[in-house]
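In response to reviewer comment 3 from the previous cycle, which asked for concrete evidence that the modeling workflow produces usable outputs, we include below a single protein chain processed end to end. The sequence was submitted unchanged, and the resulting structure tokens are shown without manual editing.
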Amino acid sequence: MRRLMICSFLMVLAATANAAQPIRLGLNYPSTGNYKSEGLELRRGALLAIETLNRQGGVLGRPLELISRNTAAREEKARANIEKFAAEGAAMAFGGATSEEAIAAGQRARELGLLFFPTLGYANAITGHDGQRYLFRETNSAWMSARVLGEYLSWHLPNRRYHYVSLDDNWGHSMEQALREATRSRDRARHGFSRISARGAHHEEYLAALKKAASSDADVLVIVLLGQDLVQTMRLAHDLKLDQRMQIIVPNLTGSIVEQAGPQVMEHVIGTAAWTWRVPALVKSEQGQAFVDAYIAQHQRYPDSTAASAYAIVQQWAAAANRAGSLHSEKIIKALEDHRYSLLKDEQYWRSFDHQNVQSIYAVRVRSRSEIMQDRFKQDYFNIIHRMDGEAAAPSLDEWQEERGDELSLR
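The workflow returned the following structure tokens.
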């Protein structure tokens, strides 16, 4: 009897120790390179989500722990990091700063049975042609950004001549194509373009592209770049006074870009964002406002959309695991698909057929420098100028299947 009691005690002790063992989440983020400012925002948002969840009891009675690795915005590093996360027992992985990273990391995660949630990956292919069962995208696609911009521009700047300066990668091509369709600027002879190397672009390359734009008759200059590529190009455009003779469009805007380039350089630029720190008050989201307040208290600055995306991903994965009662990827997939929720804004949901998060998208304009400088943190960068419902912005099932070709379901 005594031996039986000892065995039972040891079994309970082992079960208790296992229950208290942290659940690891793997974050791919660029801590160096062109996107390191965005990477810092990703990490801050993820850590805040984990702190919030752990105060509430964690997931399935266990605390969460973040393990993070630098990708330097390189797909080969992102893929290798996924392998390391899996070896360290991570339950899921998320992050990244480019579409190439998202696709590469997502493919390796699927091979290892891990769910992957890309951030800052806007190429249509992520949930389109290259979409797969183990990948869920919280951020919007190029298609969604193009639709809200196209509608706004057709109303307020109709019949204009466009010139495109685009990154020569998956996202750059898909964003330019989607925006050409949305703005009816398909004719490349009339609406010119330049390509910027996806890696290792130099000052001379940015300058040549902008001089080509300056010599055109364009009324609208679309700069399809991110990170330091965008910062340097915007500074040159300002020096060349292109912002005084053209409306500049940057399809995917973040607060960190405005901060790095400077409010005067970015003044009146139009782009899109899925979220700004003012959205929770606009839609009366208590949880969204709590996130904003907690972020401000920790960092004495406003959260960016990048931090909000990382925060939402962790929160939604955790909620799905609790609903499923399991950390098993297949069970969490079922708990996520077509699940509707409101967290940092109005209602969103993860579509079952492509795993794209469907949510409202905003067209925003960078405020004037004088307005920004009046703010307490000098970081209130955006005015929301247009909103499009997620169902109107996202591609339909027929459009998605047309892009997929013969493979009409996720695998």
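The two ends are 53 Å apart (CA to CA). We consider this sufficient to address the reviewer's concern, and the full set will be provided in the supplementary archive.
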